[in-house]
Write a structure and sequence with these properties.
The complex is a heterodimer of chains A (about 250) and B (about 650). Chain A has about 250 residues and is α+β, with helices and mostly antiparallel strands. Chain A has eight helices and seven strands. Chain B folds into three domains: about 15-265 and about 405-465, FAD/NAD(P)-binding domain, CATH 3.50.50.60; about 270-405, Flavocytochrome C3, Chain A, domain 1; about 475-605, Fumarate reductase/succinate dehydrogenase flavoprotein-like, C-terminal domain (Methane Monooxygenase Hydroxylase, Chain G, domain 1). Chain B has helices at about 15-25, 30-35, 45-55, 95-105, 110-130, 165-180, 245-255, 320-325, 335-345, 360-370, 370-390, 445-465, 475-495, 500-515, 520-540, 555-580, 600-605; strands at about 35-40, 60-65, 80-85, 155-160, 185-190, 190-200, 200-210, 215-220, 225, 260, 265-270, 295-300, 315, 355-360, 395-405, 410, 425, 605-610, 625-630. The chains are: A alpha+beta (about 250), B alpha+beta (about 650).
Chain lengths: ~250, ~650
Amino acid sequence: MNFQLNVWRQANAKSKGKFATYEARNIAPDTSFLEMLDIVNDELTERSEAPIAFDSDCREGICGACALTINGQAHGPKHPAAACQLYMRSFDDGKTITVEPFRAKPFPLVRDLVIDRSALDRIVQAGGFIAARAGSAPEANSIPVPKHNADLAIEAAACIGCGACAAACPNASAMLFTAAKVSHLAFLPQGAPERTLRVTKMVRQMDAEGFGNCTNTYECEAVCPAEISASFIAKLNREYARAVLQRSVGE
Amino acid sequence: MIGKLEGKVPPGPLEQKWRNHKNNSRLVSPNNRRKFEIIVVGSGLAGGSAAATLGELGYRVKCFCYQDSPRRAHSIAAQGGINAAKNYQNDGDSVFRLFYDTIKGGDFRSREANVYRLAEVSNLIIDQCTEQGVPFAREYGGLLANRSFGGAQVSRTFYARGQTGQQLLLGAYQALCRQIALGTVKMFPQTEMLDLVLVDGHAKGVITRNLCTGQIQAFAGDAVVLATGGYGNVFFLSTNARGCNVTATYRAYKRGALFGNPCFTQIHPTCIPVTGHHQSKLTLMSESLRNDGRVWVPKRTEDCAKPPNEIPDADRDYYLERKYPSFGNLAPRDIASRAAKEVCDEGRGVGPGGRGVYLDFADAISRLNEDTIRERYGNLFDIYQKITAEDAYKTPMRIYPAVHYTMGGLWVDYNLMSNIPGLHVIGEANFSDHGANRLGASALMQGLADGYFVLPYTLPNYLAGQIGKRPSTDHEEFKLVESEVRARVKKLLEVNGERTLTSFHRELGLLLWDKCGMARNATGLREALEKIPDLRDEFWKKVRVPGEGESYNQSLERAGRIADFLEFAELMCIDALERDESCGGHFREEHQTPDGEAQRDDENFAAVFAWEFQGNGKVERPKLHREPLHFEAVHLTQRSYK
């Protein structure tokens, strides 16, 4: 298969970026999208041109490192999948493919298609955990958790932290990301003691990072490679309202 | 220089060693802990849990990872589960059985006391992770569920769908995040360790490169903990993440740390087969699938091209069930991998190129229905579908062995300290607990055991004598090592030849897969040992590394790692040649039982091979040190899963 690529090139955050055009030739249909970029990069290297910088690591959809907007969609046209799980057989031969970084103000650009997503780490640092000192934990089966709650918890916990939700959102909102962690821990009894503080601090940090608010466009859910449901955002709102109410009555 | 290797195994009966050792270990008082700076390299299960726990204890920790966030460490990709001896199933499990299965699974090539300790602390890990909010699978009554894994006849594996590694890593990551917010841990993402600094023979710092800016910087600490994972990517194609590398451990080796059993690599039996030249990595299909999937190939070569559903049961060879009736499809990984290679070598493999076997769920689906299978393995079937565009609910999966894990690693004593004082090595990066073959669901167990429950107790044994001994980075040793790192980066950029990095890495990988992969023999290993130095020479003459040193340069990152693989590969082959026996995943074709199983030679090889770098910067034949393995609680037997 052959493709024409329209790729965003930008040397660093300060320089001005632009699209550049490259040819990807003789690509086998079973080649992954990132492997196609590897091939193009090897050709660029042979021609003494700078290879395209892009992030990836596990290349099996779980680490969340890859962050490409392909033909205008975060992670590309195959839903649900991370960009690394996209195969060239999903594209029509001879087509032009546009590749850009995830774009959101809280994700500053590093180089070409690589962005800085440390804002997401800082949201977790603000409260996305259960304080459990190694050595203090009670016997694991001493606190039964209803299966239904455990199942909901893992559905929320499946988030891979790629940031596609914020990139796809017209408001650059990270509500889905934050909601996933708040919900995961709120569904479990172990998360109860810090429930109020957690949601308050995480939402505050999310706002401080410059992420926007949710206006129910559901773009986040549509692009999420881990299929995190937007209903968790409703859960986040309930958790937040509960926390505000608790504080207002002085609890 | 290095005398007799001391494993420092504490005295006393096996089941009391760890308790006694803890009682006799030195302590660092809370107000002294903040005087110590601990450098932790790597943020996966081992590094992340260690950094968080040490921070919680009050040490000042600096944690480094090459990824843009500690949450992306490759532990995240582990699918199946984590073992523990809870015996929640009432099926006869115990600490001793978990210990015994693990040491037998490793073909009796690991240290008894370490493995017993691992089994002992396994239960604490489940308690800890549950309390952190790891959403393990549960029964309807709200209690924890278990499943079976290879090499065991009890159900002791805890799991979170097919994403156990992800959930455990996020637990450790969240604990780490809490410490980062509290200021006890300072995190350095996108920062790669390029060398180790020794001052007066003690590990006291690292030289790193910031992958975003290219800045090379020195960091001093009171102790260095390497948690940098395995070296499976030396084979080019493996289930490891693209960035996984040997650089940190290999650099430490070049500074004098001994490398233990480098030839012990695990080829995992259930991976999605290679499709072509373009492929950059392989993907695992969790071993847990063998709970319900049946492995088979056609009995006759001429049936191989037929669609699987047109081959009647009578014409199928369920070879694992046939050869190993008591363990069946849950035979250990090394054995299942070799069996797959064997049937493919006989020409009975399926799929493109004939390198594949079927993993068939039809029986399980008709016994349990599709929904149950979907609930157990849904995400794995989805991964398979994405990669192969095939529906495994309708047609059997095709699988083939692939490089997955490395049991070898830096040599450590019972305190998890290498022969270099102050240098501690945990998780996959050390050689410690899995012998010649790791059982499924044991890697997560070891990484977290080391980080949460072993290192925090053993590290003070070193630190207690080190108050006030942390050097400044102005020390001449730091200057010297830093200048060497700078020179090496410059040299890589200056070759400016015509060959790509990929071409060198692929050539090395194919050579190793061929000569030092699932089966090895003396002739092949000698051949590899002749070819590797030539390839290395060519690399330094002809490689092209574009870009500059002082910027974000992914080619330069890869170049440094491949350069180290090109040296390390030689060490692997030397070790594989020297170990003139078969054991676990190290299958020397010269040494097999009449029915083709690995034939150990306990008289001559019941020992750890720990290699010392020689050659003053140049690669020369390393010096071998042997640590004899003593077995008090188990009898060495021919491993049988029949």
